[in-house]
Amino acid sequence: MKAVISGSFDPITRGHVDIICRAGRLFDELVVGVAVNSAKNGIFSMEERVELVVAAVAHMPHVSVAPVSGLLVDFCQEQGADVIVRGLRFGGDFDYELQMAHLNKSMGGIETVLLPAGREFGTISSSIIRSAASNGGDVGEFVPDAVASALRGRFGTGGH
User: Fold this and answer.
1) In which pathway does it act (predicted)?
2) What is the set of active-site residues?
3) What residue ranges in 68-109 does DSSP mark as E strands?
4) Is 59 annotated as a binding residue?
């Protein structure tokens, strides 16, 4: 069975990687869809985010990465995926993801599987990472090495 996990991944965090690894063990194939979220002020271009995600999942042979444009259900159909995987950190995430799951099921017949975030990085978000790194914070323990390096390049700080 093939699944898609999507997000803006701006930047990808160790929490994202944990969810991707866990989802990768549940499905034969997993596509990480890198999407644009117009509600967020991003720091990396689509190309940069795809490269950073590819680097973060390179150790997972049955995981691929592709940019998403348009509706996620259309992307899933293009990829031949049966399932969308989404990570949950808090109750508010559940409320939003449940609405999206119902919409994706109605629009594309795609089921959604919700995975709770792991304890270690479950409270970390890309927004917090962006804010901390842009203000000189060392976020290296919360992001893959390639992301820490990219953040240092962007802000002069942000990694170890």
Assistant:
1) Cofactor biosynthesis; coenzyme A biosynthesis; CoA from (R)-pantothenate: step 4/5
2) 16, 40, 89, 126
3) 83-88
4) no
